[in-house]
Amino acid sequence: MDAWKEGLPRNPHFAVQQPHLGRCLSPFFLTCAIYFLLWIPEDPPSWVGALVKCLPVLCLAGFLRACSGGYYSSLLQVALLFSACGDVFLIWPEAFPYGVAAFTKAQLLYIWAFGLRPLQLGLLLPIVLASLPFYCLLLLHLSSDMVLLLTAYTLALATMLWRGLARGGSARWGAQLFTISDTVLACNAFIQPLPHARLVVMATYYAAQFLISLSAFQSPRLKTN
Fold this sequence. Notes:
- The protein is mainly α and about 220 residues long.
- Helices cover about 75% and strands about 0% of the residues.
- It has ten helices and no strands.
- It has helices spanning about 5, 15, 20-40, 45-65, 70-90, 95-115, 125-140, 145-165, 170-190, 195-215.
- Helix 3 runs antiparallel to helix 4 (about 45-65), helix 6 packs parallel to helix 8 and helix 7 (about 125-140) runs antiparallel to helix 8 (about 145-165).
- The longest helix is centred in the last third of the chain and has 24 residues, at about 145-165.
- It starts with a helix and ends in an 11-residue tail after the last helix.
C-alpha cells in the first residue's frame, strides 16, 4: 500500500511521536466553544456570524495541513475549505443555492478521498431504504427551482455515507453524523420547524467534520466482503 496515496502518516507511530497533535486541535475546540457560547443570531445575517461559524472547519483544514500529509489529507483539506464556503453562504437565505453547491463539491471530494475499495455493495440497500422515504417527503415541500439542486446534493450525501461506512474507522462515524446533521437541517428548513434544530445541526456537523479529519491518521478497512 502506498501510504502517501492512502493519506496515512508516513511513520506508523505518527500519533505517538507527535505530542503536539493535541495542541494542533486546540484551535478547533476553542472556536467550537466560541461559536456555541456566542450563539450569534442568524437573523439578521452578519459577516461576524459567518466568520464565527466557519472558523472551526477552517481550523480543521489547518490542522490537517500542519499534522498530516498525503493525497488523502489534501482531498480532505479542500473538502473542508468548500464546507467553510458553504457555511458562509448558508448564512444568507438568498445565497442558499451557492451553499448547497459548495457542500455538494465537499461531498464529492470526500467520496473521492474515501475511494471505492472495499466496495461493500451490501451497504447500499439500508442507505436507500432509509433515505428514499425522507427524500420523497422532502420533494413534496420543495419549490421547483430547488428540486434539481437538492436531488444532486442528496445523491452526493448518500454516496459519501456509503463510502464512509465502507472505509470504516472515524470516517464511518463522521459520515453518519454528517447525514444526521443535514437531515435535521433539511427537515427544519423545508418540512417543519424542529426544537433546538440549530444546536443539533451544528453539534453533529462539527463532530462529523472532526471525525472525518481524524480519518487521515487511520488505515482504511481492507476487508472486501
